[in-house]
Specification:
2 copies of one chain form a homodimer.
Chain A (H helix, E strand, L loop, with lengths): L3 H17 L5 H5 L8 H13 L3 E2 L8 E2 L1 H11 L7 H13 L4 H16 L2 E5 L8 E10 L2 E8 L4 E7 L6 H15 L7 H16 L3 H14 L5 E4 L13 H11 L2 H8 L7 E4 L11 E10 L2 E11 L4 H24 L1
Antiparallel strand pairs in A: 1-2, 3-7, 3-10, 4-5, 5-6, 8-9, 9-10
Helix pairs in contact in A: 1-3, 1-4, 5-6, 6-12, 7-8, 8-9
The structure holds a DNA duplex.
Chain lengths: 342, 342
DNA sequence: TGTTAGCACTCTTAATCAACGAGTGCTAAA
DNA sequence: TTTAGCACTCGTTGATTAAGAGTGCTAACA
């Protein structure tokens, strides 16, 4: 229902607004090399596009800016995904290659690079612990009533926590407990630990361990805590450099959200494999109503482990961002797979 | 060299400016209950105080604001440390008491409370790992060439890192290594680990472990990393609510500093036991030139373990902040001591 | 019938100006 | 020594104006 020319003009406007952050006038468009119509013609088309809801006017004598619907249409139909420059690619390669030690570092580094390349804020959800399985449990006594419990997963992730025993527990009891746990729980997904503990382990403890209730409650607490996903940020303050965010109060609100990992995690998370783009109000979250969020998932052995996200103004460099996100989504997965095979 | 009255007036001006963030005029001061001089008299005194460098004028027809020197004098001689309200105390008590599990949580929670009570930004340096001693080392194989090494200190702190062995290492070798390390290194301060490794352990390895060089380089890397202090923040964005920070660019600069823990750590750190107040340029750091930083140390068993800091505008509620910091400095030390004795 | 030149109109932005008021500094009197 | 009085300074506020960018409409053109 949109004519060829309208498509062309809409694209031109969005492109222009994305780079200049200023309402686009008819003359600006008509001056372009690839367009051979007078401003008046463009104006007529713009007027139509506005009527259809793709454009809006900040005020009657400004140019047009894309509406939310305009961005959406642009993203869905108009946008030509930009080829990543070879400089970008080598940049990424070199920066990711050097840090190759721990999965966690790969993720952190990715967040950083992503934010540097875009000057938006990147948010990466770390591998969910509960997707991975228990490799080993260690209990290291610090004092008579205090020990550190360490949980190592098959992906090499380590969680630790201090436990307090209300009454003294003998060294041999601790040893027994560790043995039992390792025997029975190796290979069990982290999120099932607590359940297994109550159902299977409790009775075994009862048989062999003298102060089994003390141990049990202590362990229960520990398993409770480790079900959350980690959140990594890159360029938290990048968003402040966007001209649309010169109001300190607005900025403060957004920055405060970043402090609440649980909330962010919920916002970013996306079940869909592949790329997701949420524009403005599509985020369904008031403080993000003029922000766009592009997310992609990354995998390990084909299974979902986390999400990478990029948060910027609705006026976002979609073509570039999309290419970048696709690249990262693939590259991180590869990297993690390779690390995993080591 | 300052008369009684001048002291009084200087204090009144600083107090007023601290609460209202606006230049203080002579009339405002003379209206105060406790002052019985006409505006003209006050003006004369103000003029003198300005000449001496304690006050300055934003422009000729505004009131006066304290100069850096003014704040300094106020802090050193004028300020009456405010009694903490009993509400504050109970607030703190209740919020610190509930979270009592891990040292790290105590610190984190302290940072949070401190920022909430003041609406400044709190920065707390975590216990320096290298003050504590090695309790136990664990090496947990994940795959043939990959293991997780876990370092537990006597304070219950856990550090972990993944190590890669370039060539396969046998299980018995790993076991030997762990035994040797635990035998020889228990009780050694963390910061000495690397040194000891090269000096003493290397030769032992050579004797008993087949691929000892592989192990050695892997371990060396691990010990390298764990010498930094952790930095905890509370209310990172609180500073944005101060009226003097309505310029996004300024804010961005400060916020960016918070992302670099090493730098912050260096800035906050203070060797002096007790309270330190650095006003504006005394921080010797450009981006902090109109910020004040109040720091105090906290201890464990009488020994320095970390620093708590509060960062706000030079126009800071010094009386309140000082009391709070003193309180926290004591309370955190107590808390940690008690935890340590458990 | 689609395109475009022309022009009146709208609305923002920047600049200028005057009035206001908060505050100072000085002088002279108490 | 203190203070009343007053002229002066300077930032703030609001109004007014001019400039400029852009639109929308009409009428002419191909």
């Amino acid at each position: 229902m949109l004519t060829e020319r309208q498509l062309y003009i809409l694209k031109a406007i969005v492109d222009d607004y994305i780079t200049n952050a200023e309402p686009v006038g008819s003359r600006t468009i008509s001056k372009r090399q690839d367009i051979n119509f007078s401003p008046a013609t463009i104006r007529n088309e713009m007027s139509d596009l506005e009527e259809m809801g793709f454009l809006e006017k900040p005020h009657s004598s400004a140019g047009r800016i894309p509406s939310q619907k305009g961005y959406r249409y642009y993203v869905d139909h108009l946008l030509s995904p930009m080829q990543l420059s070879s400089r970008d690619v080598t940049d990424i390669r070199s920066q990711l290659a050097e840090k190759f030690q721990e999965s966690e570092q790969v993720i952190q580094q990715s967040a950083k690079i992503l934010s540097q390349l875009t000057s938006y804020t990147s948010i990466v959800l770390g591998p969910e612990v509960f997707e991975s399985k228990l490799q080993q449990i260690q209990l290291i006594p610090i004092s008579a009533t205090q020990a550190v419990i360490i949980i190592v997963t098959d992906s090499g992730h380590v969680e630790n926590q201090t436990v307090y025993f209300p009454e003294n527990v003998s060294g041999s009891d601790v040893e027994k407990v560790v043995n039992i746990l390792n025997d029975r729980l190796r290979g069990v997904p982290i999120y099932q630990l607590q359940q297994k503990l109550s159902q299977e382990i409790a009775s075994v403890f009862k048989k062999y361990v003298s102060k089994y209730e003390t141990m049990l409650t202590a362990l229960r607490e520990v398993f409770q805590d480790h079900q959350q996903e980690k959140v990594y940020y890159g360029g938290k303050t990048n968003i402040l450099s966007q001209p649309e965010f010169n109001d300190v109060e607005r900025v403060r609100n957004i920055l405060n959200i970043f402090e609440e990992d649980a909330l962010v995690s919920k916002l970013i998370r996306s079940e869909d494999q592949g790329l997701t783009i949420r524009i403005g109000e599509e985020n369904d979250f008031k403080p993000f109503e003029d922000l766009s969020l592009v997310t992609a998932t990354y995998t390990l052995d084909g299974k979902y482990v986390g999400t990478i996200g990029l948060l910027g103004p609705t006026r976002m460099e979609y073509p570039r961002v999309i290419s970048l996100m696709e690249y990262f989504s693939r590259d991180m997965s590869d990297l993690l797979d390779r690390k995993n095979k080591n």
